[in-house]
Amino acid sequence: MLKYSKALGLVVFVFLFAMCNQKNKNEAEKETILKGSIDLAVDETVKQIVDDQVAVFEGTYYDAKITVKPKSEAEVINDLLNQKTKVAITTRDLTTEEKARFEKSKINPRVTPFAHDAIAFISNKSNNDTLIALKSVIDFLQGKPDPKIKGLVFDNPNSSTVRYMKDLAKINELPKTGVFSFKTNNEVIKFVSENEGMIGVIGINWIYQPTPDMTQTVDKINVLYVKGLKGNEYFSPTQNDLELGNYPLARDLFIINCQGYSGLGMGFASFIAGEIGQRIVLKSGLLPYKTPGRKLQIRKEIIKDKE
């Protein structure tokens, strides 16, 4: 009887193993690095640049379909950790604790940086003062009033901008007064455009690439020059100041691929980190992680135009 049970168990194991292999084979046949479909969880603060990348990628590889799902940073990371999504765009690398959780699940995430981004402070157009010290904002977050700041406005409590500023201010919670939060960056821009004295905290991508319905609203706000915690100069979140390392609220963008096989996530990561993807970043107003090459045609002689 014992021998029969062992034999039956072995048969069941072999059957399940074969079924799993067949399933993986079928999955591989449906999806390659340039074919198939995936959901892409995206930090909402950088949705615009990701939409551009996906549009060009799908326009180049017709058998690829990427569905962009914008979420807060906390939701994106949780989806990755809980394996609800396999590929994501974030504004930070994984922490040591997060990497340990993946290792425990026998998952080796591939993290690829592809752009230099920034957090921007914005104010109402009627505010003639376009300068702000980062220390003033940090003090305000620590509960110290500042006459120049009527209030700080964030997109939502779980966003990457909130996490970034809380880390800078070394606080666990935002102040109960003087801090406002909505759901999206567009809502922050709209609120600031209608309320004097408010300072909005947003991803710069939403200023450089506003949605069509927000173009006129963006014209009603100022992007502030920021003085860092060291030095006395003020800098803006331009490609030049990002490249020189001057702007104090810079951050990098990453694509995190947890598929574990050569699927569409790998193909898309290679695309956005490659020549075409980096040119898309450059055109968006953000700074490419790698400077795209320039092809120059050198002539040995001058060819005169025909008269």
From TrEMBL:
Record keyword Signal present: yes
Keyword Phosphoprotein annotated: no
Keywords of the record: Signal
Transmembrane segments: none
Domain PBP: 35-274
Classification via InterPro entries: PBP_domain (IPR024370), Phosphate_ABC_transporter (IPR050811)
Cited Gene3D superfamilies: Periplasmic binding protein-like II
Signal sequence annotation: 1-20
Protein name in UniProt: Substrate-binding domain-containing protein
